[in-house]
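Anyone up for a design puzzle?
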């Protein structure tokens, strides 16, 4: 299984308000309470929730539905959508 090609752009961590499943992480402005803006990194990376782990979410909920490559492509569409000004 090829690893998810994350660029570490941090846009998902700065838009946790968009999805119901990640809203609990919102510090109040759409950014995750565990996101370090200066370092562009997760402060709880090793203990981050399952919802932040593409490979774990795949194994837990989506492996019966999609091939890994399909799941990666779907997730990359979400990454790309976060780059659009309407989601900023
Ligand atoms: S938006 Fe996508 S590419 Fe950017 S950090 Fe999140 S998972 Fe990685
Ligand atoms: S817990 Fe970490 S990986 Fe998950 S959204 Fe927050 S900063 Fe990002």
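Challenge accepted. My sequence:
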């Amino acid at each position: 299984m090829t690893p998810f090609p994350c660029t570490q752009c941090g846009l998902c961590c700065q838009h946790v308000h968009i999805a119901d499943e990640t809203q609990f992480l919102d510090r109040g402005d759409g950014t995750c309470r565990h996101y370090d803006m200066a370092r562009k990194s997760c402060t709880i990376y090793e203990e981050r929730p399952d919802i932040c782990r593409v490979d774990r979410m795949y194994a837990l909920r989506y492996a019966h539905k999609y091939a890994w490559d399909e799941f990666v492509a779907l997730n990359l569409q979400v990454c790309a959508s976060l780059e659009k000004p309407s989601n900023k």
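A detail worth pointing out: The radius of gyration is 13 Å.
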